C-alpha cells in the first residue's frame, strides 16, 4: 500500500475539501483515465484495491499510473473509549481528492478494455467518477 | 492539411471575469484573437460550437475561418481552457495567421501497422512516449498528424522521430537528437501470466503471488495491531 516514507508531523487536522481540482485534471501519461466528480478522502487501501482491480482485468498487460498519493494521516480512537484524553492514534493514510482530479491513467490497451477496467476500479472508490480519454481517441475507437 | 472549419463570433467590448461569467450563463464563451502585429480583439463564441470543434480533436492543427460581425479572420486555436470537472471549453485563444506565418505547433502522432509488429503480436505493450510532436511549419501547411511505422518492431525496440514521415517544409523543433515517440515493452511477469490465463479459478488465488503477497501481509499485520488495541482498552 502507498504511504509516505517520512513525515513532519504524526497527526494532522481533519480539514475540509472545498472547490474543484486546481491541477491534475487532464491526462498526462496515458490515453485513458478515471476522473473524480465528487470530493472525498480516498484511503491507501482503496487506491490499492482499485489498482489491483485494473491490473487484474488487464491481465498485467497495460500500463497503469496512479495520480493521487495518500499523504494525510487519519487518526481514530479505539472502540469503547470515552471522549477526551487527546487525539486518537494514526490508523491509515488517505489522499484528499477534489472533483476534477484524474486518479488513475491507463495505456497500452483497447478503449473498451480500459473502460471496463476503470469501471471495476471505480467500484472500489468512495467518489463518483467518469471515464476520460484523450481528445479524438474515442472517435478513432468508434 | 485538412479543410478549414468555420465559426461565427461576436465582438465584445468588456473584458474580465464578470462579463466572462455572464457570457457563459448565456451559453457563450469568451475568446480572444491576437497576433499579426494588430490589436487583440475580444470576442465571444457559441459554447456548443466550440465544444463540438474541440472534441473533434483537430482544433490545434486546423485553421479556422472566423466571422466576427461580418469581418473574416484566418485564425488558429493556440490554447483552450477547460472546466476541470465537466471538461467543457471555457475560453479559447486564437492566433491570426497569414500564408507567410511560420509557427511551432503540436501535431498528433499516429502509430500505424500495429498488426505487423512481431513485438506486439507476442503481447508486448505499446508505450507511447509522445502523443504529440512539436513541429515548425507554415501556418497554412500544418500536417493533421504524422505517421510512425511499427512494422517489424520487436519487444524492446523503439520508434523514433526518424522513423516518422514528415511532409516537406516541416521540421521538428527538437533537432539535436533522434527522440523517441513510442517503445514496445515486455509485459511484466510473462511466465506467471500464462497459468493465470489457462485456468479461470486461478484468479482468486492471484493475491498469493507477487505484489498481492505484500498487500496480504500488510493487511494481516494491521489487523493484529487493531486487536491488541481493543484488548488493551478492556
Q: Strand count, sense and closure of the main sheet of chain B?
A: 6 strands, mixed, barrel
Q: Which class do the helix and strand fractions of chain B yield? A: alpha+beta
Beta-strand segment tally of chain A: 7
Order of helices and strands of chain A: EEHEEEEHEH
- Calculate Rg of chain B over CA atoms: 26 Å
Structurally, the number of domains of chain B stands at 2
- Count the DSSP helices of chain A: 3
CATH topology of the largest domain in chain B: Ribosomal Protein L25, Chain P
Q: What top-tier CATH class of the largest domain in chain B fits best?
A: Mainly Beta
Please outline the major beta sheet of chain A: 4 strands, antiparallel
Structural class of chain A: alpha+beta
* Rg for CA atoms of chain A: 17 Å
Which range does the strand content of chain A fall in?
Answer: 25-35%
**Gross geometry of chain B:** elongated
Low-confidence stretches of chain A: none
Mean pLDDT over the residues of chain A: 93
User: In order across it, which strands form the biggest sheet of chain A?
Assistant: 3-6-1-7
The helix count of chain B comes to: 5
Structure description:
The complex is a heterodimer of chains A (142) and B (234). The model of chain A has no long low-confidence stretch (mean pLDDT 93). Chain A has 3 helices and 7 strands. In chain A, the strands form 2 sheets. Chain A has a 4-stranded antiparallel beta sheet, covered by helices on one side. In chain A, strands 2-5-4 form a 3-stranded antiparallel beta sheet. Chain A is of the alpha+beta class and 142 residues long. In chain A, helix 1 (44-57) packs antiparallel against helix 2. The relative contact order of chain A is 0.30. With 234 residues, chain B is α+β, with helices and mostly antiparallel strands. Chain B folds into 2 domains: 5-97, Ribosomal Protein L25, Chain P, CATH 2.40.240.10; 103-189, Ribosomal protein L25, C-terminal domain (RNA Polymerase Alpha Subunit, Chain A, domain 2), CATH 2.170.120.20. In chain B, 23% of the residues lie in helices and 38% in strands. Chain B has 5 helices and 14 strands. Chain B has helices spanning 17-25, 47-55, 118-121, 190-198, 211-233; strands spanning 5-11, 28-35, 38-46, 63-68, 71-82, 89-96, 102-112, 125-128, 132-138, 146-149, 158-160, 164-165, 171-172, 180-185. In chain B, the strands form 3 sheets. A 6-stranded mixed beta barrel of chain B has the order 1-3-2-6-5-4. In chain B, strands 12-10-7-9-13 form a 5-stranded mixed beta sheet, with no helix packed on it. The longest helix of chain B has 23 residues, at 211-233. The radius of gyration of chain B is 26 Å and the shape is elongated. Residues 193-234 of chain B have low confidence and may be disordered. Classes of the chains: A alpha+beta (142), B alpha+beta (234). Chains A and B meet through helix 1 of A and strand 8, helix 4 and helix 5 of B.
